[in-house]
Protein: Globin domain-containing protein
Amino acid sequence: MISQNTIDIVKSTAQELRAHGEEITNIFYGELFKNHPELKNMFNMTHQATGHQPKVLAMTILKYAEHIDQLEVLSGTVETIVQKHSSLHVTPEMYPIVGEHLLHAIKVVLGDAATEEILGAWADAYQVLAKIFIGKEEDVYQNNEQQPGGYRGFAKYEVVDKIKESETITSIYFSPINNRAVPHHLPGQYVAISLEIPGEDHLHTRNYSLSDISNHWCPVKNK
Structure:
Protein backbone atom coordinates (compact mmCIF):
# COMPACT_ATOMS: atom_id res chain seq x y z
CA MET A 1 0.00 0.00 0.00
CA ILE A 2 1.07 3.56 -0.66
CA SER A 3 0.97 5.86 2.36
CA GLN A 4 -1.01 9.09 2.17
CA ASN A 5 2.20 11.03 2.79
CA THR A 6 3.85 9.41 -0.24
CA ILE A 7 0.76 10.10 -2.35
CA ASP A 8 0.72 13.76 -1.36
CA ILE A 9 4.42 14.25 -2.07
CA VAL A 10 4.40 12.46 -5.42
CA LYS A 11 1.31 14.37 -6.58
CA SER A 12 3.02 17.62 -5.58
CA THR A 13 5.83 16.90 -8.06
CA ALA A 14 3.49 16.69 -11.08
CA GLN A 15 4.14 20.29 -12.11
CA GLU A 16 7.91 19.75 -12.12
CA LEU A 17 7.48 16.53 -14.09
CA ARG A 18 5.31 18.29 -16.64
CA ALA A 19 8.01 20.92 -17.12
CA HIS A 20 11.11 18.69 -16.98
CA GLY A 21 9.87 15.16 -17.68
CA GLU A 22 11.63 14.65 -21.00
CA GLU A 23 14.88 16.05 -19.64
CA ILE A 24 14.66 13.53 -16.79
CA THR A 25 13.94 10.58 -19.08
CA ASN A 26 16.68 11.53 -21.54
CA ILE A 27 19.23 11.54 -18.72
CA PHE A 28 17.72 8.32 -17.37
CA TYR A 29 18.16 6.43 -20.65
CA GLY A 30 21.62 7.85 -21.26
CA GLU A 31 22.91 6.72 -17.86
CA LEU A 32 21.09 3.39 -18.04
CA PHE A 33 22.64 2.45 -21.38
CA LYS A 34 26.08 3.68 -20.32
CA ASN A 35 26.09 1.64 -17.11
CA HIS A 36 24.11 -1.35 -18.40
CA PRO A 37 24.67 -1.74 -22.14
CA GLU A 38 23.31 -5.30 -21.89
CA LEU A 39 19.83 -3.77 -21.53
CA LYS A 40 19.97 -2.01 -24.90
CA ASN A 41 18.38 -5.01 -26.57
CA MET A 42 15.19 -4.24 -24.62
CA PHE A 43 14.73 -0.97 -26.47
CA ASN A 44 14.27 0.26 -30.01
CA MET A 45 17.29 2.53 -30.35
CA THR A 46 15.69 4.35 -33.29
CA HIS A 47 12.95 5.48 -30.92
CA GLN A 48 15.67 6.63 -28.55
CA ALA A 49 17.40 8.66 -31.25
CA THR A 50 14.17 10.37 -32.34
CA GLY A 51 13.18 11.14 -28.76
CA HIS A 52 9.96 9.14 -29.03
CA GLN A 53 10.70 6.73 -26.17
CA PRO A 54 11.87 9.37 -23.66
CA LYS A 55 8.70 11.35 -24.42
CA VAL A 56 6.46 8.31 -23.89
CA LEU A 57 8.17 7.46 -20.60
CA ALA A 58 7.91 11.06 -19.40
CA MET A 59 4.16 11.07 -20.07
CA THR A 60 3.76 7.73 -18.29
CA ILE A 61 5.61 8.96 -15.19
CA LEU A 62 3.52 12.14 -15.16
CA LYS A 63 0.31 10.13 -15.46
CA TYR A 64 1.39 7.97 -12.54
CA ALA A 65 2.15 11.04 -10.41
CA GLU A 66 -1.23 12.58 -11.18
CA HIS A 67 -3.23 9.40 -10.53
CA ILE A 68 -1.18 7.62 -7.88
CA ASP A 69 -4.25 7.64 -5.63
CA GLN A 70 -6.45 6.29 -8.46
CA LEU A 71 -4.45 3.39 -9.88
CA GLU A 72 -7.55 2.03 -11.62
CA VAL A 73 -7.21 4.94 -14.05
CA LEU A 74 -3.84 3.49 -15.10
CA SER A 75 -5.09 -0.08 -15.66
CA GLY A 76 -5.05 0.18 -19.47
CA THR A 77 -1.56 1.69 -19.51
CA VAL A 78 -0.29 -0.91 -17.05
CA GLU A 79 -1.69 -3.79 -19.10
CA THR A 80 -0.09 -2.46 -22.30
CA ILE A 81 3.29 -2.13 -20.58
CA VAL A 82 2.97 -5.61 -19.04
CA GLN A 83 2.38 -7.17 -22.46
CA LYS A 84 5.35 -5.30 -23.93
CA HIS A 85 7.61 -6.21 -20.99
CA SER A 86 6.62 -9.87 -21.08
CA SER A 87 7.29 -10.06 -24.83
CA LEU A 88 10.82 -8.82 -24.09
CA HIS A 89 11.18 -11.12 -21.06
CA VAL A 90 11.75 -8.35 -18.53
CA THR A 91 12.80 -9.92 -15.22
CA PRO A 92 12.37 -8.78 -11.59
CA GLU A 93 16.13 -8.19 -11.31
CA MET A 94 15.90 -5.36 -13.83
CA TYR A 95 13.52 -3.22 -11.79
CA PRO A 96 16.00 -2.09 -9.09
CA ILE A 97 18.41 -1.03 -11.84
CA VAL A 98 15.72 1.05 -13.53
CA GLY A 99 14.59 2.55 -10.23
CA GLU A 100 18.12 3.57 -9.24
CA HIS A 101 18.73 5.35 -12.55
CA LEU A 102 15.32 7.03 -12.56
CA LEU A 103 15.84 8.51 -9.09
CA HIS A 104 19.32 9.63 -10.12
CA ALA A 105 17.91 11.42 -13.17
CA ILE A 106 15.26 13.15 -11.05
CA LYS A 107 17.97 14.35 -8.66
CA VAL A 108 20.19 15.61 -11.48
CA VAL A 109 17.42 17.58 -13.21
CA LEU A 110 15.59 18.97 -10.19
CA GLY A 111 18.73 19.65 -8.17
CA ASP A 112 18.05 21.11 -4.73
CA ALA A 113 14.30 20.85 -5.37
CA ALA A 114 14.67 17.05 -5.22
CA THR A 115 14.82 16.85 -1.44
CA GLU A 116 15.43 13.63 0.45
CA GLU A 117 11.72 13.60 1.26
CA ILE A 118 10.76 13.79 -2.40
CA LEU A 119 13.30 11.18 -3.48
CA GLY A 120 12.15 8.90 -0.68
CA ALA A 121 8.52 9.25 -1.69
CA TRP A 122 9.33 8.48 -5.32
CA ALA A 123 11.41 5.48 -4.23
CA ASP A 124 8.39 4.15 -2.32
CA ALA A 125 6.04 4.90 -5.22
CA TYR A 126 8.35 3.18 -7.68
CA GLN A 127 8.56 0.06 -5.50
CA VAL A 128 4.78 -0.20 -5.40
CA LEU A 129 4.51 0.12 -9.18
CA ALA A 130 7.38 -2.32 -9.74
CA LYS A 131 5.64 -4.94 -7.60
CA ILE A 132 2.49 -4.54 -9.68
CA PHE A 133 4.42 -5.05 -12.91
CA ILE A 134 6.44 -7.98 -11.56
CA GLY A 135 3.30 -9.76 -10.36
CA LYS A 136 1.35 -9.26 -13.58
CA GLU A 137 4.33 -10.20 -15.75
CA GLU A 138 4.85 -13.38 -13.75
CA ASP A 139 1.21 -14.28 -14.43
CA VAL A 140 1.86 -13.87 -18.16
CA TYR A 141 5.04 -15.98 -18.01
CA GLN A 142 3.29 -18.78 -16.13
CA ASN A 143 0.36 -18.73 -18.55
CA ASN A 144 2.76 -18.94 -21.50
CA GLU A 145 4.58 -21.90 -19.95
CA GLN A 146 1.36 -23.82 -19.36
CA GLN A 147 0.26 -23.71 -23.00
CA PRO A 148 1.02 -26.66 -25.34
CA GLY A 149 4.46 -25.87 -26.73
CA GLY A 150 4.76 -22.98 -24.33
CA TYR A 151 7.93 -21.67 -22.71
CA ARG A 152 9.33 -18.79 -20.66
CA GLY A 153 11.59 -16.26 -22.32
CA PHE A 154 12.91 -16.91 -25.80
CA ALA A 155 13.07 -20.04 -27.97
CA LYS A 156 15.09 -20.68 -31.12
CA TYR A 157 13.34 -20.55 -34.50
CA GLU A 158 14.70 -20.62 -38.04
CA VAL A 159 13.51 -18.63 -41.04
CA VAL A 160 11.89 -21.00 -43.55
CA ASP A 161 10.34 -18.52 -45.99
CA LYS A 162 10.12 -14.84 -46.80
CA ILE A 163 7.33 -13.37 -48.97
CA LYS A 164 7.03 -9.77 -50.06
CA GLU A 165 3.34 -8.98 -49.70
CA SER A 166 3.56 -5.37 -50.90
CA GLU A 167 5.98 -2.46 -51.15
CA THR A 168 5.76 -1.93 -47.39
CA ILE A 169 4.92 -5.37 -45.93
CA THR A 170 6.96 -8.58 -45.91
CA SER A 171 5.85 -11.84 -44.27
CA ILE A 172 8.62 -13.89 -42.68
CA TYR A 173 7.91 -17.53 -41.81
CA PHE A 174 9.57 -19.23 -38.85
CA SER A 175 9.71 -22.82 -37.68
CA PRO A 176 10.88 -24.06 -34.26
CA ILE A 177 14.36 -25.56 -34.53
CA ASN A 178 13.41 -28.51 -32.31
CA ASN A 179 10.10 -29.02 -34.19
CA ARG A 180 8.12 -28.35 -31.01
CA ALA A 181 4.53 -27.15 -31.18
CA VAL A 182 3.97 -23.42 -31.71
CA PRO A 183 2.09 -21.83 -28.77
CA HIS A 184 -1.45 -20.62 -29.39
CA HIS A 185 -1.82 -16.94 -30.22
CA LEU A 186 -4.59 -14.38 -29.92
CA PRO A 187 -5.87 -11.95 -32.59
CA GLY A 188 -3.68 -8.84 -32.69
CA GLN A 189 -0.87 -10.48 -30.76
CA TYR A 190 2.77 -9.78 -31.56
CA VAL A 191 6.04 -11.54 -30.82
CA ALA A 192 9.51 -10.30 -29.96
CA ILE A 193 12.33 -11.38 -32.26
CA SER A 194 15.89 -11.08 -30.94
CA LEU A 195 18.93 -11.41 -33.20
CA GLU A 196 22.57 -10.49 -33.55
CA ILE A 197 23.69 -7.93 -36.12
CA PRO A 198 27.33 -8.13 -37.24
CA GLY A 199 29.35 -5.23 -35.88
CA GLU A 200 26.88 -4.41 -33.09
CA ASP A 201 27.79 -4.94 -29.43
CA HIS A 202 24.33 -6.03 -28.29
CA LEU A 203 21.33 -8.06 -29.40
CA HIS A 204 18.54 -6.28 -31.24
CA THR A 205 14.98 -7.12 -30.20
CA ARG A 206 11.91 -5.90 -32.07
CA ASN A 207 8.19 -6.69 -31.87
CA TYR A 208 6.30 -7.87 -34.95
CA SER A 209 2.63 -8.65 -35.56
CA LEU A 210 1.57 -12.25 -36.08
CA SER A 211 -0.43 -12.68 -39.27
CA ASP A 212 -1.07 -16.44 -39.17
CA ILE A 213 0.08 -19.53 -37.35
CA SER A 214 0.09 -23.34 -37.44
CA ASN A 215 1.85 -26.14 -35.58
CA HIS A 216 4.81 -25.99 -37.94
CA TRP A 217 5.35 -22.39 -38.94
CA CYS A 218 4.94 -18.92 -37.56
CA PRO A 219 4.72 -15.92 -39.92
CA VAL A 220 5.20 -12.34 -38.83
CA LYS A 221 4.64 -9.14 -40.72
CA ASN A 222 7.43 -6.61 -40.96
CA LYS A 223 6.11 -3.15 -41.87
